[in-house]
Amino acid sequence: MTGALFALWATGGTLNIYSQVGLITLVGLITKHGILIVEFTNQIRAKGVGITQAVIEAATLRLRPILMTTGAMVLGALPLALATGAGAESRMQIGWVIVGGMSFGTLLTLFVVPVAYSLLARKAHIEAHGMEEAPALPAGAHGHPH
Question: What helix, strand, coil percent values describe the chain, rounded to 5?
């Protein structure tokens, strides 16, 4: 939302029905990115991998699909954002919301979701097991050679 609202402000746009449609689209796509990282992290953790290693593996595995989705949406919305002619004012709003929101939202997703997952998963583990720190797996327990 921050990226979308900044893009609207920077281009002189307003919050209207067209920009709101863009915001709904944006929220769905950015949420999907976060869900993908969390779901893959949970699947990797179910195999016995530690929290940190699982987050790193999941973020690495999902990086390309997330960037491809973002690239497709941003490049697809650029013609809307740069439109001219009759009715261009309305199309520009939805375009700038998607371009700004997807760009900034993807950056936040790639950095904030893994960090937040790590912190929240550790806290949940500590509360569930009464430990001061989540246990680390022994070297090589996650199936990678040294």
Answer: 75, 0, 25
Instruction: Please report whether residue 32 resides in a domain.
Output: yes
In-domain check, residue 52: yes
Q: Are 111 and 22 in contact (CB under 8 A)?
A: no
The model carries a pTM of 0.72
The answer to the question of residue 146 being in a domain is: no
Q: Which domain holds residue 43?
A: 2-129
Distance CA 59, CA 39 (A): 11
Task: Give the pLDDT confidence score for residue 130 in this predicted structure.
Answer: 63
Q: Nearest CA to 51 among 107, 128, 146?
A: 128
**Residues 87-116 pLDDT 10s:** 787 788 888 999 999 999 999 999 999 999
